[in-house]
Inverse folding.
């Protein structure tokens, strides 16, 4: 089914399990100039024009989602598990093709794209396993006198259909983190993918139907902004799971305060290196955390803070590592397994990131490497002597840019990490684990990683931000809790 759908011209969209065409067309984003040869594309690449759903299609999907909800929520757990397991198997069967699609459409280096497919497989496998363990929890009533003879059973039931709105940077796995938990909880879905990553979302839709998902339970709509806003406000979609910018996310929350809104938003992740935090692979980790996928990750390292006795060693070593990336052929060609980073998603974004760097230099920041840009390709940038008050530290840059500064005391570093309106993940490097745990407890973030970069994530762990970084948690089981509510069944058991 996947090959058939993606080689149609135009690629159709999905309304309640039915593939649809329209007179309106969208041209998906492509980065062909950075991809010499992609795995999974032995012949022609997929069609690159997508049919755009109109308002009638969008409203039809919203009006019919309640039917899909009734069908999906009535399925026994073993059927939900089978659908999720089968989807994981199909993802594995099409691994190279999907990775090539991600690489070509959103500019992710092929090694990272393959890793994203592998993570999506894990996400569906974990969701399948959750269907085996979730169920009634018993609460005896007799712990209080008036509850004698009463048994309480607490189940979790779906809050209703989910509107999943996804970004371009992880077009498969971030969507999987919404779709897999929704299916595991018996929640129908309407997917609104990012304009820059819609082909991958359509591909996942095709695989879900092939895996046996009731067709009425899924729509994939690469619609325009006004129609997306209709979906956000539509009463048939009581749950909205959004990953994207803080500005858009909080605006959604304000518009629909009575809905369950889950937000995974921006960040300005920081890492703190204490004076005993040196290791042989520290620089390589910092390099990957700051510059992999050109920094287009919400937990990409943006701020590096190093204890003064170690500062020059880390700063100078990182500069040398960055210089070596280009010489080693690790920048540019997305189809090479050696490549760490390629272009930014589009020209306007690359120009905007460069302007933020120039603004920081104008304030007194010091470039440790020449600022270099070739079209959408902005080379890795490292700045020193920046201030915590400047936009280069306060705003999410979402590009291959990091700042590095020294600190005198752990308290100073923690205060600087917390001096941000964001808080998703942070990192601490120290051999003093007991002290590192104490420092971690003072950091304002959804997660703190000790002796690991904040860019690290496992798909079954809780993941979410505080402050302006978001609301609610993902990580399969945690997303399932967000998408459900407890329901009590109370039973009086005769005593004789």
């Amino acid at each position: 089914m996947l090959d058939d759908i993606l080689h149609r011209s135009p690629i159709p969209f999905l309304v309640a399990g039915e593939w649809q065409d329209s007179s309106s067309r969208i041209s998906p984003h492509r980065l062909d100039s950075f991809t010499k040869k992609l795995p999974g594309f032995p012949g022609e690449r997929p069609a690159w024009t997508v049919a755009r759903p109109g308002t009638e299609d969008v409203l039809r999907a919203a009006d019919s989602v309640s039917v899909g909800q009734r069908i999906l929520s009535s399925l026994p757990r073993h059927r939900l598990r089978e659908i999720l397991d089968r989807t994981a198997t199909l993802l594995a069967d099409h691994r190279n093709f999907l990775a090539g699609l991600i690489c070509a459409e959103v500019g992710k280096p092929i090694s990272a794209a393959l890793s994203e497919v592998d993570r999506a497989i894990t996400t569906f496998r974990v969701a399948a396993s959750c269907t085996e363990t979730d169920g009634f929890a018993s609460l005896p009533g007799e712990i209080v006198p008036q509850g004698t003879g009463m048994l309480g059973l607490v189940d979790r039931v779906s809050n209703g259909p989910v509107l999943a709105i996804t970004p371009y940077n992880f077009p498969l796995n971030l969507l999987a983190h919404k779709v897999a938990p929704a299916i595991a909880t018996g929640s129908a879905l309407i997917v609104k993918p990012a304009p820059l990553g819609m082909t991958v979302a359509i591909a996942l839709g095709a695989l879900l139907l092939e895996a046996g998902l009731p067709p009425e339970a899924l729509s994939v709509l690469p619609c325009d902004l006004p129609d997306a806003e209709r979906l956000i406000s539509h009463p048939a979609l009581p749950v909205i799971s959004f990953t994207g910018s803080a500005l858009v996310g909080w605006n959604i929350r304000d518009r629909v305060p009575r809905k369950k809104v889950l937000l995974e938003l921006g960040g300005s992740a920081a890492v703190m290196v204490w004076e005993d935090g040196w290791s042989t692979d520290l620089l390589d980790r910092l390099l990957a955390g700051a510059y992999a996928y050109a920094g287009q990750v919400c937990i990409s390292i943006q701020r590096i803070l190093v204890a003064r006795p170690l500062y020059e060693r880390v700063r100078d070593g990182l500069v040398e590592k960055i210089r070596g990336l280009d010489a080693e052929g690790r920048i540019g060609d997305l189809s090479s397994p050696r490549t760490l980073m390629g272009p930014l998603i589009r020209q306007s974004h690359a120009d905007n990131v460069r302007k933020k760097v120039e603004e920081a230099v104008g304030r007194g920041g010091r470039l440790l490497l020449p600022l270099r840009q070739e079209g959408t390709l902005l080379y890795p940038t490292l700045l020193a002597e920046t201030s915590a008050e400047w936009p280069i530290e306060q705003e999410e840059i979402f590009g291959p840019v990091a700042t590095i500064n020294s600190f005198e005391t752990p308290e100073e570093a923690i205060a600087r990490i917390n001096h941000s309106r964001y808080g998703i993940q942070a990192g601490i490097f120290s051999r003093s684990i007991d002290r590192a745990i104490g420092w971690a407890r003072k950091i304002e973030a959804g997660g703190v990683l000790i002796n690991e970069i904040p860019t690290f994530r496992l798909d079954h762990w809780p993941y979410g931000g505080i402050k302006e970084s978001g609301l609610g948690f993902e990580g399969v089981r945690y997303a399932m809790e967000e998408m459900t509510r407890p329901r009590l069944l109370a039973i009086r058991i005769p005593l004789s």
Notes: Residues 110-133 form the longest helix (24 residues). The two ends are 60 Å apart (CA to CA). Residues 2-265+472-485 form a domain with the Aldehyde Dehydrogenase; Chain A, domain 1 fold (CATH 3.40.605.10). The chain has 16 helices and 22 strands.
